[in-house]
Automatic annotation (TrEMBL):
Family: Belongs to the glycosyltransferase group 1 family.
Keyword terms: Cell membrane, Lipopolysaccharide biosynthesis, Membrane, Transferase
Localization, UniProt: Cell membrane
Predominant location category: membrane
Organism: Campylobacter portucalensis
Name recorded for this polypeptide: 3-deoxy-D-manno-octulosonic acid transferase
EC number: 2.4.99.12
GO CC annotation: plasma membrane
Database matches in Pfam families: Glycos_transf_N
Known catalytic reactions: lipid IVA (E. coli) + CMP-3-deoxy-beta-D-manno-octulosonate = alpha-Kdo-(2->6)-lipid IVA (E. coli) + CMP + H(+)
Amino acid sequence: MIYNIFCFLVWLFCVPFLMFFSVKKKYRLSIPSRFFLYKNSPLKQSDVHFHACSFGEINSLEILSKNFNSSFSVITQTGLEKALKFNNNSKFLPFELFLPFWLSKSKVLVIFEAELWLNLVKYAKKNGAFVILLNARISDKSYKKYLKFKFYYKQIFNNIDLVLAQSNIDEIRLKELGAKNIKVVGNIKSANLKQVSKIYPKFKEKLIIVASSHDGEEELILKSIKPKLNQKFLIAPRHPERFKRVSKICEDFAKRNSLKFEKFSSNLGLKSDIILLDTMNELINFYKICDVVILCGSFIDGIGGHNPIEIAQFNKPIISGKFFYNQKTLYDLVGGIKFTDLSNINDILSLNLERSYIKNSCNFDEIVNLIKEQI
């Protein structure tokens, strides 16, 4: 009761700010749905309710969820869009205040990684669900912050029946926060790999992908690169709302170097030297035919890196920055990554780089069976 009163006071205080941000395109659907229940009726009952944050996490759960009668709750708009493509029983997860009467019954609740909300697990347990925390991890950067709120996380873990951790280090940290019944199964992202949906012919030029880039990284990388005649660049921003801005950056880069530029969405045949991949769900198809991937999210401090395993499944050379602390476990699963601060990027791109490879992966069938045992 005290926690719900606290949530109500927080919600009341934040209402003016929520109203302000709800006019922004990025939050136009999520804020009204999550904080005001606008067009956000409860999920239909299912055997397994999966909850994850955004596009990448939902993407990791797609194949797993197809083994069950499932439903999805998400936090972001891109996450919901992705979930609805393969599961119509998908909604935004409302703010904690609304969960006591919004949450539908399920036999199992599977929470992905760090989506730890007290009312979500508490009322799922009250509804009779077996609660699983899947792919659990505590990053180096987050660990001290978690410890400051240990009292809160202890209450959460009191309502979690099974924790499937990524590594032994995660197991130790999770125990410190109050988690019980922990099983180290590895990272599901290393076993549940997204597959190619379309086959593109390989380019005669050397295809270099600048993958999952964030604000500031495109400019930093392109400023460091001196393109050669046999090179073709595919720029793939992480967030779709940045496509327009990155298009201008790429266009300016092309003009400075007397190169041709096009956007993927323009359907011009992919004949240009610089191509902006301004669409979702296509990057995996280009990983298969590329020659090198510059994996972003790692060149500017504050992001923490991205998943290298999707690339390593194709044994493509990977170039990365040093700021990958949020993906340390995944980086440890991949061999052959070349690290740089971009000062020597042109020399590196000229080398016959070592191919990346996945060192080991978790047992996907084991995870499926652990969930099935509770249905």
